[in-house]
Amino acid sequence: MPLLLGLDLGTTSAKAVVFDQQGRVLSQGRAATPWTVTDDGVELAPSALLGCAVEALREAVDAAPGEEPVAGVGITSMGESGVLVDEHGDPVAPLVAWHDVRDHAEVAELRAEIGEDEFCATTGKPLRGQFSLTKHRWLVRHLDTVARARRRFNVAEYVVRSLGGDPACELSLASRTGWFDIVAGDWWAEGLAFSGASASLMPPLVRAGDPLGRITGELVPPRLHGAVLTVVGHDHQAAAVGAGATGEGDELDSCGTAEALVRTVAPTLDRDQIGFLARHGVTTDWSVQPGRWSLLAATEGGLAMQRTLGMLGVGRDGLAALDRAAATAPVGRVRVEGVGGESLTVAGLHDGVTPAEVWRAVVQEATDQAVVLHDAMARVAGPHAELVVTGGWANSTTFLAAKSAGFGPYRRSDVVEAGARGAALFGAYAAGVLTPGTGFLPETGA
């Protein structure tokens, strides 16, 4: 029986998971995303991105039992960041992190030249320094090599292409660039011109689950050779599919480096509603699910919590003890600002303040920001029916306690690596192993 593989290329790491057709996890692989900090900001060499993806794939496949081949590989990834390549497919610039802030001048120019209302209503994005168009404008200005660019790939698309797949731009990832007109479902000429880009730079638009050729070459183990490739779009949307949070009114809380609240809705919002959501920090994207849109309210709360653990000298193995101490730590003495900004500010560190008190305050501030976004989303999409919590920070009892207080009841998903699971399911569709729109086979269907 052929196997399925999902690869989730995230901000912190690449996660590869091998599944059988019942959705059971057979093996996993992981490799850290090797960002570098330069004088300009946070970036990644495309070769290093491909290297960490291949490392995760190798580890997962080498650990998979038996000798069955992998039939389909679905790849999902972080959005906004992209790889520019020349006519030979060779990168001409680094991949700039979505959370990098080098483009602050370009963001101000976007506000002055195009305007917040036009940008928000057209792209469904808040006017801030996260999206591709301002970072591309920065690259055009600062790197002469960008003039040689002939194609621009989002992260998952670049890895698919590097493994032997066809050039493609998946709709949900196109939606994350700031170059895409959400209502029109096509590239936005004014946004492209602002960046010094063009529609010819973009590969053909495809949907998640469209087959994009097969794995070739010697980068990966033989069990992957011939596997059908597909791009499964934005990682938070793939996680919603993997966690089973795509029903009417379902809301996924994906708690990783970037915490994201995700709802899947009918594509019926008008430009005024899209603009309202964007101005309140909620993005509107085309969904990985056919004929649907996705609302995403994202914060950098997870990144702030990660930085806080680093500041406190606490590794993931020490998180449980910190959580236990935080449960009884005083509230209100420590004040936190700058979650989602260039730097995190913690005030009130007088005698007697403990690391647990700081941790609790940071988690609470991150959660409070997520609640504000959740409420804005509900004003347009209506109240949520069920909140499904998944991701690495769901292992923190401090985080879950704050979530319960801010959102009410939730269901914690027990799915292992929801993003990779969703990606593998679309890989199964692309390979013809499962019928599009269905789930993994029940055990009785083996």
Helices and strands: which structural class?
alpha/beta
Mean pLDDT: 94
For the termini, the CA-CA separation is 9 Å
The CATH superfamily label of the largest domain reads ATPase, nucleotide binding domain
CATH class (first level) name of the largest domain: Alpha Beta
Gyration radius, rounded: 21 Å
**Sheet having the most strands:** 6 strands, mixed
Q: Would you tell me which CATH topology of the largest domain applies?
A: Nucleotidyltransferase, domain 5
Per CATH, the architecture of the largest domain is 2-Layer Sandwich
Number of strands: 22
Number of helices: 14
Estimate the helix proportion, in percent.
25-40%
Unreliable spans are none
Total domain units: 2
Summarize the structure.
The chain is of the alpha/beta class. The chain folds into two domains: 3-243 and 417-445, ATPase, nucleotide binding domain (Nucleotidyltransferase, domain 5), CATH 3.30.420.40; 245-414, Nucleotidyltransferase, domain 5 (2-Layer Sandwich).
Structural write-up:
This protein is an alpha/beta fold and 446 residues long. The chain has two domains: 3-243 and 417-445, ATPase, nucleotide binding domain (Nucleotidyltransferase, domain 5), CATH 3.30.420; 245-414, 2-Layer Sandwich (Nucleotidyltransferase, domain 5). The protein has 14 helices and 22 strands. The strands form seven sheets. Strands 17-18-16-15-21-22 form a six-stranded mixed β-sheet, sandwiched between helices. A five-stranded mixed β-sheet has the order 3-2-1-6-14. The chain has a three-stranded antiparallel β-sheet with strand order 4-5-8. Helix 2 packs across helix 4, helix 4 (132-142) runs parallel beside helix 7 (189-195) and helix 8 (235-242) packs across helix 14. The chain is globular, with a radius of gyration of 21 Å.
